[in-house]
Design goal:
- The complex is a heterodimer.
- By secondary structure, chain A is of the alpha/beta class.
- Chain A is built from 11 helices and 14 strands.
- In chain A, the strands form 3 sheets. Chain A has a 6-stranded mixed sheet with strand order 6-7-8-3-9-10, with helices on both faces. A 4-stranded antiparallel sheet of chain A has the order 2-1-4-5.
- In chain A, helix 3 crosses helix 4 and helix 8 packs across helix 11.
- By secondary structure, chain B is mainly α.
- Chain B has 12 helices and no strands.
- In chain B, helix 8 runs antiparallel to helix 11.
- The two termini of chain B are about 25 Å apart.
- The chains are: A alpha/beta, B mainly alpha.
- The interface between A and B is medium-sized, with 29 and 24 residues.
Chain lengths: ~300, ~250
């Protein structure tokens, strides 16, 4: 199966600034792809290039097998897009906007009516008859997601779709995105790591216009994530930290704000056995001990934080 | 329905549901209704205002041509000025608000976006012109007892060509200049240039610069030359300006 999005050496420069710098990316058809990055990393620029709203200064990008630069209109017919801050015609109602949006895709008659009704229900706006100008940001965000689905797209491009939503609205959007798995390719740009962990199969991390990681979440954790142990003792923390640091599986030993000892380890099983033994030898007590893997958040901080001055 | 039609319906509805339905019609209705009355009672008004200073001055008896002339003068000056201000954001307002993103990421071409905005604006201005010219015709007939239509409608038609030209100018300026106020300022500059250019006779006869003068002459049945050349060149220039706006907008990053 061909990839839904293929970017090769994709670059976008504004005068001296490179918003995107030689980005190579493939998004598998039917996948939910998390596009992760801190604010200002270049995520929105990437979406502007994917939608044809901006032109690359270098490299190429194809969407659903079509070159965005040359077949923009045909490509757009199969794509749904939600910008980070969706702006609507304030004088319209949600139903009028969805009908208008469907009309631009040449939908009409019963098909359009049914789809508008279904999407109003999905966006929890069926009972809302006020004009969009009176909507809260969350309501606009939900309507934004609904309009992006009006054409039953093969590819859905979402720019920060949950950023303005309350927990219930956020869950509804994430459930909706998850329900599209296998049928629609979803390109999900966000800086909310929990959302990515919850719904995405694959993730790319963008920092300062460059892709710094691109793989499945599990693979990413395996490759970049580290195992760690956090231990807190009743007394003798300094001596215990020094003893742990001498062991071969201890990679880094740091102290937390509450005096706890944080150890990144190469062999979690050995750490689990030997740390309690060291504590016993010091004749002190353990008040807390946790052992496990770094999550995506730690991987993200590790990768993006490396580049920070 | 194709994208052109869907977007045209949206543009027409937007006019009727926003401030746009009030501004231009209100200005034009005011002049259409008051102009003939002002023309009819001008000698009395001047007599009251001027008093003894005008006592010796014999003012001609007003005719319906004075009402027509006043109507066209108001169209060519204040109304055109208002039109330039109103349409400074004809394209850029959607770019600035961000609504353009939810429209142009759907299968509507950028050409359609610009052309529909221009055409719908022309239709709206033409519709308001027809209604208000009919109003001033009726008020003139009531006020003066007679109001032949040919002079009034031919002058209004020539003014409509001038309005179409300025809508094309504003469409291009709105694509080139992101700020509606900046585009309106440039539009007023174009208005002043055209007025100055019209003073030179060859330009007045053969270019759009002569439209305002031709409209004024037709209104008082005093036209000595045909307005065909100014009308044809204005329509051709309008087409060129809109084509340029489309070409620039297609290359613009949004």
């Amino acid at each position: 199966m061909s990839a839904a999005i293929v970017a090769s050496g994709l670059t976008k420069a504004y005068r001296s600034t490179r918003a995107l710098d030689s980005v190579d990316l493939e998004v598998a058809t039917g996948s939910i792809f998390g596009f992760l990055g801190p604010n200002g990393a270049g995520k929105t620029t990437m979406l502007r290039l994917l939608t044809g709203m901006a032109k690359p200064t270098g490299g190429t990008v194809t969407v659903l097998g079509r070159d965005v630069a040359t077949s923009s209109k045909a490509m757009r017919a199969e794509v749904g897009f939600l910008p980070d801050v969706p702006a609507f015609y304030d004088w319209m109602t949600a139903e009028q906007f969805l009908t208008f949006a469907g009309g631009l895709f040449r939908l009409d008659g019963a098909l359009l009516r049914d789809r508008v009704a279904m999407l109003l229900d999905l966006a929890a706006l069926t009972a809302t008859t006020t004009r969009i100008g009176e909507y809260s940001r969350g309501m606009k965000q939900r309507l934004g997601v609904a309009q992006a689905l009006i054409n039953a797209p093969r590819l859905l491009l979402l720019d920060e779709p949950t950023s303005a939503l309350d927990p219930i609205g956020r869950k509804a959007v994430l459930d909706m995105v998850a329900s599209l798995r296998g049928r629609t390719t979803v390109f999900f740009s966000t800086h909310i790591l929990a959302d990515v962990e919850r719904v995405c199969d694959t993730v790319a991390i963008l920092d300062r216009g460059r892709i710094v990681a691109n793989s499945s979440i599990d693979e990413l954790k395996k490759r970049y994530g580290k195992q760690r142990v956090v231990v807190q003792v009743t007394e003798g923390s300094d001596a215990l930290a020094a003893s742990i640091a001498r062991l071969h599986w201890a990679q880094t030993v740091t102290r937390g704000t509450q005096g706890e000892i944080e150890v990144t380890v190469s062999d979690i099983a050995a750490a689990r056995h030997q740390i309690p033994a060291l504590v016993a030898r010091q004749q002190t007590g353990i008040t807390m001990m946790e052992a496990g893997e770094f999550g995506l958040e730690e991987v993200f901080v590790e990768l993006v934080g490396q580049a920070r001055p | 329905m194709n994208g052109y039609l869907v977007f045209s319906i949206k543009e027409l509805r937007e006019i009727t549901r926003t401030w746009r339905i009030w501004v231009l019609p209100a200005i034009m209705i005011f002049f259409a209704a008051s102009g003939p009355l002002v023309a009819r009672f001008m000698p009395e008004i001047l007599g009251t205002v001027g008093g003894a200073a005008l006592g010796q001055l014999a003012l001609p008896t007003p005719t319906y041509f004075d009402a027509y002339g006043g109507w066209i003068k108001n169209l060519a000056q204040i109304t055109l000025f208002a039109l330039i201000i109103m349409y400074g954001g004809i394209v850029s307002s959607e770019v600035r608000s961000g609504t353009v993103l939810l429209v142009l990421t759907k299968p509507l071409s950028r050409s359609a976006f610009v052309i529909v905005k221009f055409v719908v604006s022309c239709v709206f201005v033409a519709a308001v012109l027809v209604v208000t010219t009919a109003l001033t015709w009726v008020v003139t007939a009531i006020t003066f007892g007679a109001a032949p239509g040919a002079a009034l409608w031919s002058a209004a038609a020539v003014w409509l060509v001038l309005a179409v030209l300025f809508l094309a100018v504003m469409t291009l300026l709105s694509v080139l200049i992101g700020s509606p106020a900046g585009a309106s300022g440039a539009g007023i500059g174009a208005f002043a240039l055209l007025a100055i250019a019209g003073i030179w006779e060859p330009l007045g006869h053969y270019s759009p610069a002569g439209l305002a003068a031709h409209a004024a002459s037709l209104a008082v049945d005093a036209s000595t030359t045909s307005p065909v050349w100014p009308v044809v060149t204005a329509l051709a220039l309008s087409a060129v300006l809109v084509a340029a706006a489309v070409a620039v907008f297609r290359r613009k990053e949004l």
